[in-house]
Specification:
heterodimer, A: about 775 residues, alpha+beta, about 30% helix, about 25% strand, B: alpha+beta, Ubiquitin-like (UB roll), DNA polymerase, domain 1, 2 domains, 5-stranded mixed beta sheet, 6 helices, 5 strands, binds FE2/S2 (inorganic) cluster, oxidoreductase (chain A), Ald_Oxase/Xan_DH_a/b_sf (chain A), molybdenum (chain A)
Chain lengths: ~775, ~160
């Protein structure tokens, strides 16, 4: 088994990204920035009903409008476009109704695409879309998750008469006995509002089809171009190798751009049907009703604690509302896995019962937003742990110290069903106590409270499962790759061009690969150019999902770099008549014990233009490597988040006074970018804790369709976010020894605020159970207004 | 209202990044679309088209403004500066360098609007981090969590003489 190796600078060095040089100048290229010659612009006609039967579609007036090239409906696309189902082999009972790119007979959410108008400009297309007359027969709609599973609720799909897509039952150990013998039992209810990722660049796609060669070329804003290449080919009946998907600069993804969307698929089909380039740039209003949503849960939980303050058991019941369909291709089942499989994750306990029900409702489909179910699993666990500590009369951090997993417990087969090979809570706790003067924080809180301030402190532990292996999707029959690849070419000037299957949405994965390749080969950072995001250039790979780019794609880059270095040293040995083992490649020059003997540029020129100089050996000057974690289902990061808040008990508002993240994820390739990933992820967690909610009325009509209604955190809402890296050796099993960290900040942020606010309300006899913690909910939790 | 009849285009004359531009525009075209589509100045980004996110910020007659909320016809007789012009003139250079060094951008979609706003805020003498956070509340960034942005601006503000 490969083990972590010593890796020199520039790995481990805080460096700004290379691509920021163009982005600060406004010279980034995003998909909306170009229009193909002769192209058509798209506007979708989207359902105004959350639930209705389509009786007829009359597009005659729209088609007659000057500038309109075509109006397409599901019937027009059907001959060339397959339907799809978001199934998953790990959940054979999952009800995954068949879905079409455009709604065919029944619309199941307000905003579902029904027809697509193609015109010379978006303005004309929008005008024409208004003229498409759709006759609907409204059907009863179900929006609230509890209403969806209530007796007599209208069935959204005939396949699921009770609207339940999946029930997951997990039981390990003697739960009833644990609760019966417990000295303390605490029980809490939680509900979590629907949220979404809101990358500031909306989704966008340009598709061009060449009928003679049956060649589809797509430029889109996406995290997983290889996945889309395979899906577009499969669903449109094309050869994978004749489809090319490339991404320019991508303005944030966060999981929103990890999915397949019916509207984007319809754009590709439209390009095939019209023979003209077709371009669709979502506007913000349609993004809010068509991007994947996430994390609408209603949860109850219990914790059992013995007389010594040891956790005995958890019992969790989760209702997860996924909207109208199981999202294709990954399915919408993954989120409950995290709620159950991460319940109690940081702790030692002996029994666990979990029930999760996935329910349909007339809302947009739910997909994988940064952290997926982790933030829910963490908030439920940590809410219960605080409640258990209170019931046992033990300080919450002390209670955690009693129960946190230590090195002696590892590997730990948790009663929640997940086995954790490596967690680092003792190191993280140590780092937390070094970085934060906790006794002083407690004194300040006590002093503030004595002055009448409503202050609260929350400290939560969290686990992030990153860098997934191929077990979940691969064995589940879902075409999602856990591999990533890197090909490195030595150019005639001694520079390197790397083709990496990692993708970049601003997180810095490209820069990380650059640093790893520079270190692996031994060249200056400036001589490494990394190309990402183009399926015709890079080998197959998973792209961005589940915090994996550097842990997996970086590992591939390291091995490709070492292979190229080996070849370079062998070629140099041949030219210098030296044993390659006595040579080293450093900073772009080949050294022996006496110093630099030859520049890499000289070697490269010789190898490219005088290959006969190597004694009959053919210089390859290109090496590739591929990597997928074969040794386990995930690599875990561990950490704590601390939140200090002040609640205004008159207004119900929350002020975030302090937020600290302590984190450990193996080797850190670029501390600057790692810290900013964590900060950005925390900000998203804080948004869902305090502001963000996709609200709907009882009929399923969306009420938050603008950024004025769906409130993202602003600069003035947030405190500085202190980031502390706990020290631990690199993770065994790979050369790089890194776990991912892109979601870590989101995992624990909301939980910390939730516990801090409840700590603040406790002296007032108040409690909140629903996120986001809006002013109204806090006043209701204080009993000042009716909830 | 549905505009099924073509609406008579309007001729405007405007100064964009120091150059005089004469153009024929549709009365309903937004200034953001005019800059991006007609002039190819795509550094001005569109994140919401309803005046909330600030990605479309340009300098309009000396003040930052949201180009998605202005019509191209309103630019008649106006002087406009976009990120491209402000980059070329060099007036953002220290901010741009500070943003890069501090990693105050990730995807970069918000960055043009944030930089133009930051330059104006510094000119107004704001340098305290809390005040900077308030001054930036009209520019959303979904990637960074703002701290690096605030620190980068504060650093430039601290080195900028002000009277
Ligand atoms: S695009 Fe103008 S404010 Fe958002
Ligand atoms: S850097 Fe992505 S929105 Fe600000």
């Amino acid at each position: 088994m490969t083990e972590p190796v010593t890796i020199d600078a520039p790995v481990g060095v805080p460096l700004p990204t290379a691509r920021s040089a163009r982005l600060v100048n406004g010279a980034g290229r995003f998909v909306a920035d170009a229009r193909p010659a002769g192209g058509l612009e798209v506007a979708f006609v989207r359902s105004a009903h959350a639930s209705a039967r389509i009786l007829s579609i009359d597009a005659a007036a729209a088609r007659a409008m000057p500038g309109v090239a075509a109006v397409l409906t599901a019937a027009d696309l059907a001959p060339i476009l397959k339907s799809f189902r978001g199934t998953h082999g790990a959940f054979p009972d999952l009800v995954a109704p068949r879905q079409t790119a455009l709604a065919a007979d029944i619309v199941r959410w307000s905003g579902e695409p029904v027809a697509l108008v193609l015109a010379a400009s978006r303005a004309v297309a929008e005008d024409a879309a208004e003229l498409v007359e759709i006759d609907y027969d409204p059907l009863p709609a179900v929006a609230d998750p509890r209403a969806a599973v209530a007796e007599g609720a209208p069935a959204i799909h005939p396949e699921a008469p009770d609207n339940v897509a999946l029930t997951l039952i997990h039981e390990k150990g003697d739960v009833d006995a644990a609760f019966a013998q417990a000295a303390h039992v605490a029980e809490l209810a939680f509900s979590f509002g629907r949220v979404t990722g809101v990358p500031l660049e909306t989704r966008g796609i340009v598709a061009t089809y060449e009928a003679g060669e049956r060649r589809l070329t797509v430029s889109m804003s996406h995290q997983c171009p290889h996945q889309m290449n395979v899906e577009f080919a499969g669903l449109l009946g094309l050869d994978v190798e004749k489809v090319r998907v490339s991404c320019l600069d991508v303005g944030g993804g966060f999981g929103v751009k990890q999915q397949l969307y019916g509207d984007e698929l319809a754009v590709c089909a439209a390009a095939m049907l019209t023979g003209r380039p077709v371009r669709f740039i979502a506007d913000r209003l349609e993004s809010m009703v068509s991007d994947i949503h996430a994390r609408e849960h209603v949860v109850t939980g219990r914790i059992a604690v013995d007389g010594e303050g040891r956790i005995l058991a958890f019992d969790i019941d989760d209702l997860f509302a996924i909207g109208a369909y199981s999202q294709y291709p990954r399915s919408s089942a993954g989120e409950i896995r995290s709620v159950i499989g991460l319940a109690g994750a940081p702790y030692r306990f002996c029994a666990m019962r979990g029930r999760a029900r996935v329910v349909f409702q007339n809302k947009p489909p739910s997909g994988h937003y940064r952290g997926v179910g982790h933030p829910i699993g963490c908030a439920v666990t940590e809410g219960l742990v605080d409640a258990g500590a209170a019931a046992a009369g033990i300080d919450p951090l002390e209670f955690r110290r009693i129960n946190l997993l230590t090195a002696a417990d590892l590997p730990y087969a948790s009663p929640n069903g997940t086995t954790f090979p490596r967690l680092t809570f003792p190191q993280c706790l140590d780092a937390l106590e070094k970085a934060v003067d906790l006794p002083a924080v407690h004194r300040d809180v006590a002093a503030g409270r004595a002055e009448g301030r409503c202050l609260g402190l929350g400290i939560v532990a969290f686990v992030e499962q990153t860098s997934r292996g191929s077990g979940f999707y691969g064995d589940g029959g879902v075409a999602v790759s856990s591999r990533d690849s890197c090909t490195i070419r030595l150019e005639p000037t001694g520079g390197l061009r790397c083709l990496s299957s990692v993708t970049e949405q601003g997180q810095g994965s490209e820069m990380g690969v650059t640093q790893i390749v520079a270190a692996a080969v031994g060249v200056p950072l400036e001589r490494v150019e990394v190309v990402t995001g183009d399926t015709a250039a890079t080998a197959q790979g998973g792209g961005t999902w589940g915090s994996r780019c550097l842990a997996i794609g970086g590992e591939a880059a390291w091995h490709a770099g070492r292979k190229l270095r080996t070849e370079i040293l062998e070629l140099a040995g041949s030219l210098l008549q030296a044993d390659p083992a006595t040579l080293r490649l450093m900073d772009g020059a080949i050294h022996d014990a006496s110093g630099a003997r030859m520049s890499l540029a000289d070697l490269a020129v010789t190898a490219h233009y005088r290959p006969h100089a190597f004694g009959g050996r053919h210089p390859q000057l290109v090496q590739s490597a591929d990597y997928s974690p074969l040794d386990g289902p995930f690599r875990a990061g561990s950490g704590f988040q601390l939140s200090l808040v002040e609640v205004d008990v008159e207004l119900g508002s929350v002020k975030l006074l302090r937020h600290v993240v302590v984190h450990e994820a193996g080797r850190i390739v670029n501390p600057l970018l790692a810290d900013e990933q964590i900060r950005g992820a925390v900000a998203q967690g804080l948004g869902s804790a305090l502001f963000e909610e996709l609200t709907f009325d009882a009929e399923g009509q969306p009420l938050a369709t603008t950024l004025a209604d769906y409130r993202l955190p602003e600069a003035s809402d947030l405190p500085d976010i202190e980031v502390v890296h706990a020290k631990a050796p690199p993770i065994p099993g790979s050369a790089l020894g890194a776990a991912g960290l892109g979601e870590a900040g989101t995992v624990g942020a909301a939980a910390a605020v939730f516990n801090a606010v409840n700590d603040a309300l406790a002296p007032y006899g108040g409690r909140v159970s629903a996120m986001p913690l809006t002013m109204g909910r806090i006043l209701a939790g204080l009993g000042r207004v009716k909830g | 209202m549905i505009l099924t009849e073509p609406v008579a285009p309007v001729t405007i004359e405007t100064t964009v990044n120091g150059e005089t531009v004469r153009a024929v525009v549709s009365p309903r075209q937004s200034l953001a679309d005019f800059l991006r589509d007609d002039l190819g100045l795509t550094g001005t980004r569109i994140g919401c088209e309803h005046g909330v996110c600030g990605t479309c910020t340009v300098v309009f007659d000396g003040r930052t403004a949201r180009s998605c909320l202005l019509l191209a016809v309103q630019a008649d007789g106006a002087t406009i500066e976009t990120i491209e012009g402000a980059t070329r003139s060099g007036r953002l250079a220290s901010l741009q360098a500070a943003f890069r060094a501090r990693s105050a951008l990730q995807c970069g979609f918000c960055t043009a609007g944030v930089l133009l706003t930051a330059a104006e805020v510094i000119e107004e003498g704001v340098s305290d981090p809390t005040a900077l956070r308030h001054a930036l509340s009209g520019n959303l960034c979904r990637c960074t969590g703002y701290q690096a942005i605030v620190e980068a601006i504060a650093k430039v503000a601290a080195g900028t003489p002000h009277d």
